[in-house]
Specification:
Blueprint lengths: L1 H36 L8 H15 L2 E6 L4 E4 L16 H7 L4 E4 L4 E10 L2 E11 L2 H51 L14 H50 L5 H32 L7 E5 H17 L4 E6 L4 E5 H17 L6 E8 L3 E8 L24 H4 L5 H11 L3 E6 L5 E8 L5
Parallel strand pairs: 7-9
Antiparallel strand pairs: 1-2, 1-5, 3-4, 4-5, 6-8, 9-10, 10-12, 11-12
Helix pairs in contact: 1-4, 5-6, 6-10, 7-8, 8-10
């Protein structure tokens, strides 16, 4: 509606300006004829003057007023009495401006246009001509017709826009409604729900991001279930052994002291295993929640690694495994010494466990101006490529048949991984099955507080 009104006003102004120009041209032509005929200066030509003005008025169907230099009326085509003894003055704005040498045309409140032009004789203004005419009926009719058409067009455009908006909003809101239904199902626990993706617009991108999120949620939930299952299994195994051993003693009479000692030794071993699992679990939970305070200090990593290898040397000697330490320079880094000892010890101990007799485990230390790099390389059984992204999961073992044989809680690599992350570092593994493994730990030399 505003657009229609603006267009109508613009066209109306255009037609009015054209009408002003037309009447002003006619006023100038009439003024020229009066000046040439000397009608205002020669009373003997009065009748001819009256006749010419009357004819002009009839031809253009407009009122014609002629005044002299003082503004006294010389002739008015609207006067019915042709008595001019008692002259009157005309002081309209347009006439006054014309007497001052400025031709003017203005629209009046009664929808007429007054156009006035100066009458000049020998460079002297001797009077003025004003033509007063209504706005052309044809123009008014055209404008009114156009106004109706514009209003009709506006209504049609509004209807079309409304229809388009209705279907467009449906195209936007329907996918959102479907997405909301999927979200509601997910909140109810159905994590396998997915949003159907159509097209490549922003909604499709949102759907892809949502599906990716639900996939991760499902993976986290599966990991949680697997973790609970693994914890149950790891705790159940030693408890079952303790129950079997204790029942064996209770159900037998006159059991030799040697058997008591042997069974209690086995029970004590299983209790130690239970304690180790529980302690590692508690430590992991604290690492996950970042509850363990970081006792960061500047530590010589060369001395730290030498201590670790010295402590694990007896374990390696049992399998005749050679422990090698290689360092290119003295490296100092801001670390939590106790946590880092536990993390690196897990890597070296795993290397010893999974390396056959007469093998080798090598620890390499190097650094640049920002990070320290610790490599633990073994000549063991290696890790299949498809298993390498899972080895830092809790209780995960590449070879499920070796858990009792190699011992441990299955949480060592998880503790190592969390500890390295806690130091704002990273850890990765390079390995091929049957060709050993290489763990690379990166630690910043300075910890940002």
């Amino acid at each position: 509606m505003i657009f229609s009104t603006a267009v109508y006003k613009k066209l109306e102004n255009h037609y009015i300006e054209e009408r002003k120009a037309e009447l002003l041209r006619q006023a100038n032509v009439t003024a020229g004829h009066i000046a040439i005929g000397k009608y205002l200066l020669d009373d003997t030509k009065r009748e001819l003057f009256y006749y010419e003005i009357e004819q002009t008025s009839k031809e253009i169907e407009a009122r014609v007023i002629v005044v002299d230099a003082q503004g006294f009326e010389a002739y008015d085509s609207n006067r019915t009495e042709k008595v001019y003894d008692n002259k009157k003055t005309h002081v309209s704005k347009e006439i006054l401006q014309a007497l001052q040498g400025k031709d003017t045309a203005e629209k009046q409140e009664d929808n007429t246009i007054n156009a006035a032009a100066s009458i000049v004789d020998q460079n002297e203004i001797i009077g003025a001509v004003m033509i007063s005419a209504p706005i052309d009926d044809m123009v008014k009719e055209t404008l009114n017709t156009l106004k109706k058409q514009l209003y009709l067009l506006t209504i049609l455009i509004s209807m079309v826009i409304g229809i388009i908006s209705f279907f467009t909003s449906g195209a936007i809101t329907n996918p959102l409604k479907k997405m909301l239904r999927v979200i509601q199902k997910i909140t109810e626990g159905h994590l396998d729900q997915r949003i159907e993706i159509k097209g490549k617009d922003e909604l499709a991108e949102l759907g892809n991001a949502f599906n990716h999120m639900t996939k991760k949620l499902l993976k986290v939930d599966q990991s949680r279930q697997e973790f609970v299952s693994n914890v149950s299994h790891e705790l159940k195994t030693p408890l079952s052994s303790i129950k079997v051993l204790s029942e064996s003693l209770l159900l037998q009479e006159n059991v030799p002291v040697e058997m008591y000692k042997e069974f209690f030794k086995d029970i004590n071993s299983e209790v130690d295993r239970l304690t180790a699992i529980v302690n590692d679990l508690l430590f992991l939970v604290k690492l996950d929640q970042k509850e363990v305070p970081m006792m960061v200090q500047n530590v010589n990593l060369n001395s730290l690694l030498e201590k670790i290898l010295k402590r694990l040397h007896p374990l390696a000697s049992k399998k005749n495994i050679e422990l090698i330490f290689e360092s290119f320079r003295n490296v100092y880094a801001e670390v939590d010494e106790m946590k880092l000892i536990l993390a690196i010890s897990n890597l070296v101990e795993n290397g010893i466990k999974y390396t056959p007799e007469n093998g080798m485990v090598k620890v390499v230390l190097d650094a640049d101006h920002q990070n320290a790099f610790i490599k633990v390389i073994d000549t063991g059984i290696g890790i299949p490529e498809e298993e390498q992204d899972k080895i830092f999961n809790r209780f995960y073992r590449v070879d499920k048949t070796r858990d009792r044989e190699t011992g441990g809680t299955g949480l060592g690599l998880s503790i190592t991984y969390r500890t390295v992350l806690l130091h704002h570092g990273s850890i990765k593994v390079n390995s091929k099955e049957g060709e050993g493994a290489e763990f690379i730990v990166r630690l910043p030399l300075r910890q940002n507080s």
